[in-house]
Amino acid sequence: MAKEIGLTTEQYKECEYGGDPISYEEAMKLCEYLGTTVKQVLFDHALYEPEYPVPPEWQNDIDGFEKMRQEAEDADRADYYAYASKTQNVSEPEDENLIILNRNAKKLSPENRKKLLDMAKLMFKEEFKDDEES
Protein backbone atom coordinates (compact mmCIF):
# COMPACT_ATOMS: atom_id res chain seq x y z
CA MET A 1 0.00 0.00 0.00
CA ALA A 2 2.92 2.33 0.68
CA LYS A 3 3.96 2.03 -2.95
CA GLU A 4 0.41 2.75 -4.14
CA ILE A 5 0.25 6.09 -2.32
CA GLY A 6 3.84 7.12 -2.97
CA LEU A 7 5.40 6.50 0.44
CA THR A 8 8.31 4.40 1.52
CA THR A 9 7.54 1.38 3.68
CA GLU A 10 9.06 3.20 6.66
CA GLN A 11 6.89 6.31 6.07
CA TYR A 12 3.79 4.15 5.76
CA LYS A 13 4.57 2.25 8.97
CA GLU A 14 5.09 5.60 10.74
CA CYS A 15 1.60 6.67 9.62
CA GLU A 16 0.05 3.36 10.67
CA TYR A 17 1.57 3.54 14.13
CA GLY A 18 0.32 7.05 14.87
CA GLY A 19 3.28 9.07 13.69
CA ASP A 20 2.99 11.56 10.88
CA PRO A 21 -0.48 11.64 9.30
CA ILE A 22 -0.82 11.11 5.58
CA SER A 23 -1.90 14.02 3.41
CA TYR A 24 -5.37 14.26 1.92
CA GLU A 25 -3.92 13.44 -1.51
CA GLU A 26 -2.27 10.32 -0.07
CA ALA A 27 -5.53 9.39 1.65
CA MET A 28 -7.35 9.73 -1.68
CA LYS A 29 -4.81 7.44 -3.38
CA LEU A 30 -5.11 4.91 -0.56
CA CYS A 31 -8.92 4.95 -0.71
CA GLU A 32 -8.84 4.56 -4.49
CA TYR A 33 -6.53 1.56 -4.06
CA LEU A 34 -8.95 0.08 -1.51
CA GLY A 35 -11.98 0.78 -3.71
CA THR A 36 -13.57 3.38 -1.46
CA THR A 37 -13.48 7.14 -0.89
CA VAL A 38 -12.26 9.45 1.86
CA LYS A 39 -15.83 10.58 2.64
CA GLN A 40 -16.99 6.97 2.89
CA VAL A 41 -14.12 6.05 5.23
CA LEU A 42 -14.89 9.07 7.41
CA PHE A 43 -18.60 8.18 7.46
CA ASP A 44 -17.89 4.54 8.29
CA HIS A 45 -15.83 5.66 11.30
CA ALA A 46 -18.35 8.28 12.46
CA LEU A 47 -15.97 11.12 11.54
CA TYR A 48 -18.11 12.58 8.76
CA GLU A 49 -21.13 14.62 9.76
CA PRO A 50 -23.31 15.44 6.75
CA GLU A 51 -25.65 18.42 6.90
CA TYR A 52 -28.62 16.09 6.43
CA PRO A 53 -29.14 12.59 7.85
CA VAL A 54 -28.05 9.89 5.43
CA PRO A 55 -30.89 7.50 4.52
CA PRO A 56 -30.03 3.82 5.09
CA GLU A 57 -30.00 3.02 1.37
CA TRP A 58 -27.20 5.58 0.82
CA GLN A 59 -24.95 4.62 3.74
CA ASN A 60 -22.59 2.65 1.48
CA ASP A 61 -22.41 5.45 -1.10
CA ILE A 62 -21.82 8.72 0.77
CA ASP A 63 -20.30 10.37 -2.30
CA GLY A 64 -23.37 9.44 -4.35
CA PHE A 65 -25.63 10.75 -1.59
CA GLU A 66 -23.73 14.04 -1.41
CA LYS A 67 -23.88 14.43 -5.20
CA MET A 68 -27.62 13.67 -5.27
CA ARG A 69 -28.28 16.02 -2.34
CA GLN A 70 -26.33 18.85 -3.96
CA GLU A 71 -28.08 18.36 -7.30
CA ALA A 72 -31.47 18.41 -5.58
CA GLU A 73 -30.55 21.53 -3.63
CA ASP A 74 -29.25 23.28 -6.76
CA ALA A 75 -32.36 22.32 -8.74
CA ASP A 76 -34.64 23.52 -5.95
CA ARG A 77 -32.85 26.86 -5.77
CA ALA A 78 -32.75 27.16 -9.56
CA ASP A 79 -36.48 26.39 -9.84
CA TYR A 80 -37.37 28.92 -7.16
CA TYR A 81 -35.39 31.69 -8.82
CA ALA A 82 -36.69 30.82 -12.29
CA TYR A 83 -40.25 31.16 -10.95
CA ALA A 84 -39.56 34.18 -8.76
CA SER A 85 -37.70 36.06 -11.48
CA LYS A 86 -40.79 35.81 -13.72
CA THR A 87 -43.43 36.60 -11.11
CA GLN A 88 -41.72 38.87 -8.58
CA ASN A 89 -38.71 40.34 -10.37
CA VAL A 90 -36.43 38.47 -7.98
CA SER A 91 -32.96 37.41 -9.01
CA GLU A 92 -30.70 34.93 -7.24
CA PRO A 93 -28.77 36.58 -4.42
CA GLU A 94 -25.05 36.81 -5.00
CA ASP A 95 -24.25 37.07 -1.30
CA GLU A 96 -23.56 33.62 0.21
CA ASN A 97 -25.26 34.72 3.46
CA LEU A 98 -28.48 35.44 1.56
CA ILE A 99 -28.32 32.04 -0.07
CA ILE A 100 -27.88 30.40 3.36
CA LEU A 101 -30.78 32.41 4.82
CA ASN A 102 -32.98 31.50 1.88
CA ARG A 103 -32.09 27.79 2.03
CA ASN A 104 -32.78 27.58 5.76
CA ALA A 105 -35.96 29.66 5.58
CA LYS A 106 -37.37 27.06 3.16
CA LYS A 107 -37.04 24.47 5.92
CA LEU A 108 -39.28 26.46 8.29
CA SER A 109 -42.97 25.80 8.67
CA PRO A 110 -45.24 28.41 7.03
CA GLU A 111 -46.06 29.80 10.48
CA ASN A 112 -42.39 30.21 11.38
CA ARG A 113 -41.64 31.77 7.98
CA LYS A 114 -44.33 34.38 8.69
CA LYS A 115 -42.84 35.02 12.15
CA LEU A 116 -39.39 35.45 10.60
CA LEU A 117 -40.74 37.89 8.01
CA ASP A 118 -42.63 39.85 10.68
CA MET A 119 -39.46 40.05 12.79
CA ALA A 120 -37.41 41.22 9.80
CA LYS A 121 -40.01 43.91 9.05
CA LEU A 122 -39.74 45.14 12.64
CA MET A 123 -35.95 45.10 12.64
CA PHE A 124 -35.47 46.65 9.20
CA LYS A 125 -38.45 48.99 8.71
CA GLU A 126 -36.75 51.18 6.11
CA GLU A 127 -35.85 48.26 3.86
CA PHE A 128 -39.46 46.98 3.88
CA LYS A 129 -41.07 50.42 3.44
CA ASP A 130 -41.49 50.06 -0.37
CA ASP A 131 -43.05 46.59 -0.02
CA GLU A 132 -45.73 47.81 2.38
CA GLU A 133 -46.71 50.69 0.11
CA SER A 134 -47.35 48.46 -2.90
List keywords for this structure.
elongated; 134 residues; mainly alpha
Nutshell version of this structure?
This protein has 134 residues and is mostly helical. It has helices spanning 2-5, 9-16, 24-34, 38-44, 62-87, 96-105, 110-123, 125-133.
Could you explain the architecture of this structure?
Helix 7 crosses helix 8. This protein has helices at 2-5, 9-16, 24-34, 38-44, 62-87, 96-105, 110-123, 125-133. The mean pLDDT is 79. The longest helix has 26 residues, at 62-87. It is an all-alpha fold and 134 residues long. It has 8 helices and no strands. It is elongated, with a radius of gyration of 23 Å.
**Mind summarizing the main beta sheet?**
none
Order of helices and strands: HHHHHHHH
Straight-line distance between termini? 68 Å
For the CA atoms, what is the radius of gyration?
Answer: 23 Å
**Percent helix range:** 55-70%
Query: What percent of residues are in strands?
Result: under 5%
> Low-confidence parts, pLDDT < 50 over ≥5 residues?
none
Task: Give the mean pLDDT.
Answer: 79
Structural class, judged by helices and strands?
Answer: mainly alpha
Shape: elongated
The number of distinct helices, counting runs of at least 4 residues, comes to 8
User: Tally of extended strands?
Assistant: 0
